[in-house]
Specification:
By secondary structure, the chain is of the alpha+beta class. The chain is about 20% helix and about 40% strand. It has a six-stranded antiparallel β-sheet, covered by helices on one side. The longest helix is centred in the last third of the chain and has 9 residues.
Length: about 80
């Protein structure tokens, strides 16, 4: 597993990721929004991501591979920065 640190603050779960492409992810359990921070500084927000998908992402052997296969092109997103 490549989660370096996990912090839960109310309804927000933040995870620091050891990945070649991703550095961090934040999930809002109430809004079902997943913010993904990439190594190049870009932040994308994925909308209406189910809890079970976020949980599988967190627990996967490679968050980068899971993100690419199960989240990247399957959920509506917007670039934040």
């Amino acid at each position: 597993m490549s989660i370096l640190k996990e912090v839960i603050e109310g309804k927000i779960i933040s995870v620091d990721i050891n990945s070649s492409n991703l550095t961090r992810a934040k999930y809002d359990t109430e809004k079902r929004e997943l913010d993904v921070i990439f190594k190049n500084g870009s932040i994308y927000q994925y909308i209406d991501v189910p809890w079970n998908i976020f949980t599988s992402f967190r627990l996967s052997e490679s968050q980068g591979k899971y993100f690419s296969a199960e989240i990247k092109n399957k959920y509506t997103f917007k670039k934040i920065t």
